[in-house]
Each structure stands twice: as C-alpha cells, then as structure tokens.
Design goal:
Layout lengths: L1 H16 L15 E9 L12 E4 L4 E7 L7 E12 L2 E6 L3 E11 L2 E5 L4 E6 L2
Antiparallel strand pairs: 1-2, 1-8, 2-3, 3-4, 4-5, 5-6, 6-7, 7-8
Protein name: Lipocalin family protein
Pfam families: Lipocalin_4 (PF13648)
Amino acid sequence: MKKYVVFLLLIGVFSFSGCNNDDDGGREDPIIGDWILTDVTPAVIDINCPNDTTISINGDSTVQSSFYLQENNCNLQQETGSWTYNGGSSYTIEFPELGDVQGTTSFTETDTFTFTTEGAVLTFERLL
C-alpha cells in the first residue's frame, strides 16, 4: 500500500511540474509564420511590384518585414519590429511606412488571414 501512495505522490509532483504558466494559456498563436502581403484595400500603399512583400511573425514577438512598394520605386525596404497579441482577435503589428498598427485578424483558412485596421484591410497568405 505504501508503494501506491509514493507512486501517486510522484505522479502528482510530475504533473504539476510540467505545467506551463504562459500568459496566453500555452496556445500556439496562428499568426506566427511567414506571410506574403497579397492585397491592401483600399490601396493606402501600393504593393504592385515584381517582388513579393513579406513579413515573418516570430514566436519571440518580433517581426521581420521585407516591403516592396511603388512609393519607394519597388526598392527593398527591410525592417525589424515587434508584434503584440492584445486579446481576442486583436493584435498590434509594427509595419514599415505605417508604424505600430492595431487591428483585428480573421483567419479565413489556415493559410490566409486578414488584418483589419481603421483605414485598411491587409490580406496575407502563408509563405509555403
């Protein structure tokens, strides 16, 4: 009987020591990944360039952006910024030319999401 009590105590200790106390409940954020900006409505920035505008949203709250904009003669503009999960579907993402932008996300598929702000809707597709 004593062996069973010790065994149960060990299971309890290992169960609690394996818990993760993350602020987000340990969820894997669906926004993390490499994305191509495919559309901006209305066209507050013009992304019609030969190269794709991309962002990499990382698990360490950083964002690496490679923007090709008509306003910049389609020259590469790279920037490292940050992103924050605000709760619900709200995020703040730092974009080149735009700075910190707060908006809501809507994942239409696992490989596509829209980022809706006060002034525009940005559509992203996962870079495969």
